[in-house]
Amino acid sequence: MVRRAASGDEGRRPTTIRDVAAHAGVSVATVSRILSGTYPSAPATRSKVMRAVRELDYVANANARGLAGASSRSVAIIVNSVVSPHYAHVAQGVQAQAALEGKLCIVGTTGGDPERELATVQLMRQEHAECVILVGNVVNDEAYRERMGEYARALALAGSRLVLCGRPALGPDVPALVVEYDNTGGAYSITSHLLSAGHRRILFLGRRDGYTTPDSRISGYRKALADHRVPHDPGLEVEGTMERREGYRMVRERLASGPRDFTAIFAGNDLIAAGARQALREEGLRVPDDVSMVGFDDLPPAADIDLTTVHVPHEELGRTAVRLALAREQDAGMAEHVLLGTHIIVRDSVRPLRNQAR
Amino acid sequence: MVRRAASGDEGRRPTTIRDVAAHAGVSVATVSRILSGTYPSAPATRSKVMRAVRELDYVANANARGLAGASSRSVAIIVNSVVSPHYAHVAQGVQAQAALEGKLCIVGTTGGDPERELATVQLMRQEHAECVILVGNVVNDEAYRERMGEYARALALAGSRLVLCGRPALGPDVPALVVEYDNTGGAYSITSHLLSAGHRRILFLGRRDGYTTPDSRISGYRKALADHRVPHDPGLEVEGTMERREGYRMVRERLASGPRDFTAIFAGNDLIAAGARQALREEGLRVPDDVSMVGFDDLPPAADIDLTTVHVPHEELGRTAVRLALAREQDAGMAEHVLLGTHIIVRDSVRPLRNQAR
């Protein structure tokens, strides 16, 4: 709770909500409703109240009093960047569920910097967000787990809750909720889809050892190869980050380094696929006539490039994170670790090997 | 500033930062640095300090003291949705400039609901964000202008600043900064580009009377037609919102309603263009061989569909908004209304009329 300032602070009797109501000629309840922003109000009434607020300088006192209530009505999500459609769609789910529950939604962005992440978690805690949702790919090392443990305990002390979204669980002693989706299962299914079409030399774009998301996707790829008794060639796993320009770079470099030694591509996500497709086109190679390709995420631009991909329930991840965090009072028996399923979306980017230029 | 609570509130002497430092065996300055999150710190040191914070329950006191500093280190941006690439890229610019200036960035989302907008502005003010940036398309009516005037004055009273981004100015008596971009000029240029290629029947997708962004784009379209002495046919202006599915719907309905009476399309933004392109393809019409098309925004998916479009400096809009808001102390003479330019990006979605199937 933001503490109430001792009224002596001002050196004069502070303006109260009653003063504002009297000045505006409305009830205290009306002023309260309008200032809390939780109910619709007639524009003319709001206008009268806001004029009274201005004229009596009530705003300057707001932190200590009237608006403090607003602070317990927010949920927070912290992401690297809102430009990434992956993060944006999870945030959209958080926003939608927050709206349903009558809460505000605030998004913190960190640019991937752990120090900014720490400062943003502190800000959200200070703001008394009811939960703080951290999203996405991480290096799951000791320093990370310790940092998350600190966040979880500090938030729990402040009456808030840490939710990890698309990240692995921390351990039984850490008071965090976890909402994951099935990266490995999705990667297994879509690799099997390529294998069933006869492909054996499948280039994987976006290996990044130690990072949880690419690691879990590549393990699904390897498992599918093994189950189909296709020899695993580590030379087909290309390192890169999950960005469009990286997809472009990886394919440009691969094609420049020697004759093409693959018939299909498994792009670590849809952005990589879009970049890879552009690099293929610049070499006169078409998808799927010359090269088959699949992605992961089912976000824009997958529909625009007709990409067969793995659907990740991004908005559902965000909604579930909020539901889980806010339901803890009513439903203590609710799972603290949720794994959402993924499935293939078939579009037009895969050809059976025999129908494809080799 | 969050007020300091009278220390008698607790009924016992509250834990101080000195207690934490002593318990952790580090200096007060180190505790302060680690809690403020503004400096890098060794994981082992942070871990010691955070343990002391937990053991002494220092967190519960944080609002009244140690972390209050964090609240003056944030900038806030409020958008309808982070899924829209337009909003997301402006937010990205805000985040990048905030990081440069050593500030945190928080994003509020409203789902387009004015009541949530009001509550979110209050939350940001309560949080003492140094500026609150509101982005995007609005109905510029009396109620809107009054609401913005209230925000601007309330924020000014709290020592913060309202910035309108991609929205028109409010008037000389309202303490708001404005960062706009040239919608009308961009629309004029890209319509001229189609006219220069010989097109005369240009379908405009996304008319929405009263909304500032489509209104300013359609006025550039009409002005270019007039300057090229091409008769204006209001029947070529199709109503719809700025979403992908709307682009699809508008073209589906248009093609179902009679013979094609246009040779080119000016899509109100790139999302509309992507949806329109899909609808054309389902009717066997290719861009640009059968129909020329241009968009507006230069965001994904423009590159993926090879769309000639108008580049909007989204990230620069966000960066400028932050620079303008934070520079007011040092540089009082700085403009309070900035108009950023737009320009055409030529890709491969326009053919001269004589080379195109009619």
From TrEMBL, chains A, B:
Molecular function as annotated in GO: DNA-binding transcription factor activity; transcription cis-regulatory region binding
Superkingdom of this protein's organism: Bacteria
SUPFAM superfamilies named in the record: lambda repressor-like DNA-binding domains, Periplasmic binding protein-like I
Domain HTH lacI-type: 15-69
Gene3D superfamilies found in the cross-reference section: 3.40.50.2300, lambda repressor-like DNA-binding domains (1.10.260.40)
Signal peptide range in chain numbering: none
Keywords from the named record: DNA-binding, Transcription, Transcription regulation
Protein name: LacI family transcriptional regulator
Native organism taxonomy: Bacteria, Bacillati, Actinomycetota, Actinomycetes, Streptosporangiales
